[in-house]
């Protein structure tokens, strides 16, 4: 359980770091770029993917490049959502992206569903709608927050689906993870060099390296928890998602004085119920 808690804590600290750095004027794109530099290095030494025997012809490079573009793009959207909608709602939207991933698993990958999965998807969808509804306003800035929340929800689900599809083609998870981190770093580095004529200011590079360590720690600890509890995937899935939502809500309320509206609270309850149902579906 310590691994699950640590993974969840790293995930929430990533969100806190993004929100604080953005408010202090750090460049998000530069931070995110260097985040993938350290993440790709850590991934190589931690998971030890067999990159030497990759088939140049058989590797789905278009999918890898797509993930390389999608990863930093969704990370940027996450940073904007944290700033406009807050950690509380962003964490709920990010975690409930699993219901879109599961829907894709049913319609695209033809996975078998039981009643718990259907119930989890239904409850999760209601939860997301309540969270989006709670952020409605006539203010343009607030409405942008709704858009960013929706894009976070869709974006993380799309990454999950593409990862599942790529690994389904025969590539190992560690290989895909390493290649997409490298692709995300190279593509982002080329982008900031062409647009801003720089590889990054020192403070943004340092913050990005810290972000990458936390981001990778979240993934590594979560995978390690699944390996150690391979007979109890429901415990890992539910524990991780519920802890991230709860820690995200607490950090929003305590550190950033965000308000928990009734509609957000209802969305949170539906979201947690959804996660429990999906865990029971394992």
From TrEMBL:
Kinase keyword on record: no
Domain EamA: start-end pairs: 3-132
Keywords, in A-Z order: Membrane, Transmembrane, Transmembrane helix
Signal peptide as annotated in the record: none
InterPro entries named among the record's database cross-references: EamA_dom (IPR000620), EmrE-like (IPR037185)
Cross-referenced Pfam families: EamA
Organism: Acinetobacter equi
Annotated Gene Ontology cellular component terms: membrane
Protein name, as recorded: EamA domain-containing protein
Source organism, top-level taxon: Bacteria
